[in-house]
Amino acid sequence: MSDTHSDISHDQHAVRRQKLVEMRAAGTDPFRASFTTTHFSGEAIKSYVEGQDNAVTVAVAGRLVTMRDMGKSQFVKILDQQGQIQLYVKKDVIGDDAYAAFKKLDLGDIIGAKGTLFKTKTGEITVRVETYTLVSKALRPLPEKWHGLSDPEQVYRQRYLDLIVNEESRKRLMLRSRIVSHIRRFLEDQKFIEVETPILESTAGGAAARPFVTHHNALNADFFLRIATELRLKRLLVGGYDRVFEIGRIFRNEGVSRKHNPEFTMLEVYQAYSDYRGMMVLIKDLLTTLCLDVLGTSEVQHAPSGQVINFGGPWREVKYKDLIRETTGDAGWFERSKAEKTAGAEKLGLSIHPGWEEFEITNEIFSKKIEPNLIQPTFVTHLPKELCPLAKLTPDDPTTLDVFELCIGGMEVAPAYSEQNDPDVQRAMFESQAGEEKQNIDQDFLLALEHGMPPAGGMGVGIDRLCILLTGAESIRDVILFPQLRSADKP
Q1: Residue 321 covered by a domain
Q2: Residue 221: what are its φ and ψ, rounded to 5°?
Q3: Which of 142, 173, 208 is at the close of a domain?
Q4: 338 and 358 in contact (C-beta within 8 Å)?
Q5: pLDDT (0 to 100) of residue 29
Q6: Are 35 and 76 in contact (CB under 8 A)?
Q7: Phi/psi at 277 (5° precision)
Q8: How far, in Å, CA of 39 to CA of 20, rounded?
Q9: CATH number of the domain that 428 lies in?
Q10: Both 101 and 249 in a single domain?
């Protein structure tokens, strides 16, 4: 922000403060406790009856975002949850004193107004104001109309200003709420039960990720912010909840990027007596109905690739190993030595760490050379067993798992498994993954499995990534109301 702009903002702040003093001296309360509305802006506009000016009375409220002074009358617009509506304020109608006070209002002030609807000569549905009330005085000015929020960091740090001045942001974040609402309704219609599980865990499990650690003073013990909800939800399968889901915040103490935020929203869903193929049907039905019901179309523009993602067409299914063989041009890739795989990956332009295991070298090829090019909905199936200790092994290939990763728009959106329900196999897989850190194994979960868990399909859906795809956002920060940022006083 320029020094000149700062000076102007400071001057306006001082002027508004002086107006506040004068209002209070005159006995006016500039911060009302309430105002009774009858309509949001969009509802009011829809309630207008064509050809019947002044037949419908409404009471609306919102923030002043434009003001056009015409001497003895003013056209202004207010912004509320549904958008903008125009008000026509006339001196002869509201009275001299009220009009004089109205002319002292500033952009950003929040008012309530009551009146009848009419259509202007330009065809805009407008409220002919009979009475108005200042309900909240804005002591600081809005960003300049034509410059908006010029500092990208300020967009996220002062999201409330972004929502006021940036219609695109407001629509995108409103759309996110509708997406989450649709997911809930869809799953409830499929007889799934929504539950809540703990955020504080004594053992960080259910995924391979670095957790955040916090301390509980009363118990004098460290706890982890959950990195997944999986192990809790599968306990509920043991307890007789056959179809269960949770939409909740997940915390992973890892990097920040266009696709990653330290805390994010994940849907996890588990269905007893199903498997990973049942999850294929579920996610395809969910996303196709979501696009049609919320977006009104099954086709979404994917700006980075220039392609149109078609959710209504056939979804590709391909095995992980086949993609690796195709990309490396080596039909015998999985029989090669570590040295040969390293050389093959480096030939593709990848940098391979000497300490990596063979499956990590292979997965680097998938992550860097394959996944970014999977734009259309693609089920990548039968991943290497080393990548997840919680899924069933593939019966005809014990080196892989009965799982899929749904990739859309060049990123993983939803992994799903045929869940491991054999407690002995699960223990062995946990111990293999944990290595020397056996104390980190969730023994209570293994105890629950020993009581019997039905076969099940399980799936996670990254809500933030899904919203990036469906709203055309540039970054995960654009679809989270308040993304994680460095402290304002740190560079």
Answers
A1: no
A2: -145, 150
A3: 142
A4: yes
A5: 92
A6: no
A7: -75, -35
A8: 29
A9: 3.30.930.10
A10: no
Question: Is the same domain home to 309 and 420?
Answer: yes
Residue 115 lies in a domain: yes
**Does residue 130 belong to any structural domain of this protein?**
yes
What does pLDDT average to in each consecutive run of 10 residues of the chain (491 residues)?
Answer: 55 93 93 97 97 96 96 96 97 96 96 98 97 97 69 84 92 97 98 97 87 96 95 97 97 88 96 98 98 96 94 96 98 97 97 96 97 98 93 95 97 96 94 72 94 98 96 92 78 48
Question: Residue 68 and residue 75: Cα distance in Å, rounded?
Answer: 5
Q: Could you tell me if 137 and 241 lie in one domain?
A: no
pLDDT at 2: 45
Q: Are residues 137 and 203 in the same domain?
A: no
- Domain, as residue range, for 215: 164-315+376-478
pLDDT at 437: 65
Same domain, yes or no, for 299 and 411?
yes
